[in-house]
Design brief:
The protein is 32% helix and 33% strand. It is an alpha+beta fold. A four-stranded antiparallel β-sheet has the order 2-3-1-4. Strands 5-6 form a two-stranded antiparallel sheet. The longest helix has 14 residues, at 44-57. The chain starts with a strand and ends with a strand.
Amino acid sequence: MAEAESYFITYDIKDPKRLNRVFKTLLGFARHIQLSVFFGRITRQKMIILKERIEEIIEDEEDQVIFIKLCADCSEKITAIGTPLNLKKDNTIII
């Protein structure tokens, strides 16, 4: 079984229709944790599929999606101020 890695995914999409499509696409791979931020444990193969789907939706000149891969040690050190955030290894988030 492929090893899943931790990612933060954030986006800035100009068109509301494209925004909705990107949002729904990301929901299939990660958890929505803030307005334009997702967190997920994603395998390399699924990340390839996700990026291909996002590329089909966005307009390169107007939109941006950022994928931030976290090292295993880094993902264990995530902290939050305000509403508590617990990012579990199984992609479950408890708030």
